[in-house]
Design goal:
Blueprint: E1 2-7, H1 10-22, E2 27-31, E3 39-45, E4 48-54, H2 61-74, E5 81-87, H3 95-109, E6 113-114, E7 123-129, E8 135-143, H4 152-163, H5 165-181, H6 191-206, H7 211-221, H8 228-233
Parallel strand pairs: 1-4, 1-5, 5-8
Antiparallel strand pairs: 2-3, 3-4, 6-7, 7-8
């Protein structure tokens, strides 16, 4: 069975990639070009395939989802993405409702029958009539990691903070710095920009050189299976196995 996870950016992809490998026992297959994503990786679990990627920002999540729906509309059975996961941040009180409305608009264009109401962090079963008039069943999961405002970066920072007292100190100081440094909100105009700034300040202190490589090492060495907080946030991804 084929599954696909649509992320907002590279950090989200790396985070979910290591979660799927370390907790859900998927293996890394390849990095390859794909019409849906700017950056993507393929993971395998027995005969199951998982494509994980991003297009470079929250504004392009629905664009990628539309590409998936178009692909499914024309695909042969072996190429259909039967499980579709969308990872998004909770930027404000309206962000979850806005993306659900955008997804519904796209599904209406493809005349999808929405059997269940779309709710965050719950699987929703859809029915799509493809170009041959055949009915395809698709499971859709919208993952919004936090009940409060935040992003996947928030999840990782909170987890690192809870895991190590010294890291907790650096995380708190990073957040304090970001809150105070741009006091006119001249550069960090949106909440998601401030969250990502907190994340990047922490990592610039933790690993000031070889940023990308060292970030990967942190992901690799993180105690995924022992961290109940992360397992609770992303438990629905276990259903892809």
């Amino acid at each position: 069975m084929n599954s696909i996870i649509i992320c907002e950016g590279l950090t989200d992809c790396l985070f979910i990639q290591y979660y799927m490998r370390n907790v859900c026992h998927w293996s890394d297959k390849s990095q390859r070009k794909n019409k849906i994503f700017k950056w993507c990786r393929e993971l395998m679990n027995d005969s199951n395939s998982l494509l994980l990627g991003h297009n470079g920002g929250s504004s392009r999540l629905c664009e990628a989802f539309e590409s998936v729906m178009k692909s499914n509309y024309y695909a042969q059975d072996s190429e259909i993405y039967h499980n579709v996961v969308i990872m998004t941040d909770r930027d404000d009180d309206q962000s979850e409702r806005n993306i659900i409305n955008d997804l519904m608009f796209i599904m209406n264009q493809y005349k999808v029958i929405n059997i269940n109401e779309i709710k965050s962090n719950e699987w929703c079963i859809l029915e799509l009539s493809n170009n041959l008039g055949e009915i395809i069943k698709i499971k859709l999961l919208l993952v919004v990691p936090l009940d409060t405002h935040g992003a996947i970066e928030t999840v990782l920072l909170d987890s690192l903070s809870k895991n190590d007292e010294y890291d907790h100190h650096i995380v708190e100081k990073s957040k304090e710095f970001v809150r105070n440094v741009d006091y006119k909100n001249q550069y960090l105009k949106k909440r998601r920009h401030r969250v990502k700034a907190e994340f990047n300040v922490f990592f610039s202190i933790r690993v000031p050189e070889d940023y990308y490589t060292e970030r990967q090492k942190i992901f690799m060495n993180f105690p995924w299976k022992d961290n109940q907080y992360i397992q609770q946030v992303f438990q629905k991804l276990n259903d892809l196995s």
